[in-house]
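Query structure, 316 tokens:
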């Protein structure tokens, strides 16, 4: 007879955990495992990584989930390995081989030409094996049914690109890219331009916005920590607001701002603003237009008290 499973007592947890996602599990499974280890009431992530991809996955807990959407637009940096001379149905090692070609001898000059060709603004046709939706259904569902649907090319930006042969048929790709860029497609397109085709055999996200691998923890490492050590790995909620202009409000204005009211001041226009109260507590995010501070995301008074650990009343 099995012993009854112990129910985890959930609690309010606020902050950002930088996870180094392992191979072959989904981003959501990784999130749920971390949520269980932290006993957190509420959690979300800032955009998924494929099961075959590893690397930086910021996980948001509690109040941080209110700002996770802001991070979806962040630039991301990937390190990938593409196998030349072989195309697959999915653009990666999961798919069936659909074409094989001999791999010519490439010099660094050839790779430098590819780097120039694929750096800057480029147009990409999204892969069929992706979560993009068509008529309410993800493209990968059409692909699994053997159907191919027409996809419009999308404009993306490759900010930095490094290409290096690590074997005659293996190409290392390091790319810093804008939101919405598919590295599988980039690998396939580079292979096509080289005349031999390619597919990805490894993909690792090494940075997203201001967060990089050096600050990440693995699930295995997290499991080995005690509760206080796990909590110590959390970054503050406003780590998601790096790059935002800071505005500090006095008690009266802070209370009105938390009620959703616009505040007027001498501020210059700014699209991204982090707003703090009189004791330095984060109140929320906003934008400034024509001298008005306009709330976009607000923390609740209870969230502010839990984050700050203060027993003082929050201005409302």
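Result returned for the query:
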């Amino acid at each position: 007879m099995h012993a009854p499973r112990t129910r985890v007592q959930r609690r309010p947890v606020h902050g950002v955990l930088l996870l180094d996602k392992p191979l072959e599990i989904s981003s959501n499974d990784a999130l749920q495992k971390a949520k269980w280890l932290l006993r957190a009431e509420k959690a979300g992530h800032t955009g998924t990584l494929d099961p075959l991809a590893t690397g930086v996955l910021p996980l948001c807990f509690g109040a941080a989930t209110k700002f996770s959407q802001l991070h979806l637009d962040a630039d991301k940096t990937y390190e990938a390995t593409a196998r030349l001379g072989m195309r697959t149905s999915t653009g990666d090692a999961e798919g069936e081989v659909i074409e094989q070609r001999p791999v010519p001898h490439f010099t660094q000059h050839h790779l430098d030409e590819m780097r120039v060709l694929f750096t800057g603004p480029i147009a990409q046709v999204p892969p069929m094996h992706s979560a993009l939706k068509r008529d309410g259904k993800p493209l990968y569902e059409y692909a699994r049914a053997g159907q191919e649907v027409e996809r419009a090319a999308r404009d993306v930006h490759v900010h930095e690109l490094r290409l290096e042969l690590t074997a005659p048929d293996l190409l290392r790709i390091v790319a810093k890219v804008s939101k919405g860029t598919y590295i599988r497609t980039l690998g396939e397109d580079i292979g096509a331009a080289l005349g031999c085709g390619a597919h990805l055999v490894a993909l690792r996200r090494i940075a997203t916005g201001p967060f990089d691998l050096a600050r990440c923890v693995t699930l295995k490492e997290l499991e080995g920590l005690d509760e206080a050590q796990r909590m110590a790995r959390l970054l503050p909620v406003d780590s998601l607001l790096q790059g935002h202009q800071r505005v500090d409000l006095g008690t009266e204005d802070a209370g009105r701002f938390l009620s959703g009211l616009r505040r007027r001041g001498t501020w210059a226009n700014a699209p991204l603003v982090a707003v703090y109260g009189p004791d330095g507590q984060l109140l929320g995010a906003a934008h400034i237009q024509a001298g008005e501070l306009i709330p976009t995301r607000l923390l609740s008074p209870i969230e502010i008290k839990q984050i700050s650990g203060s027993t003082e009343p929050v201005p409302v």
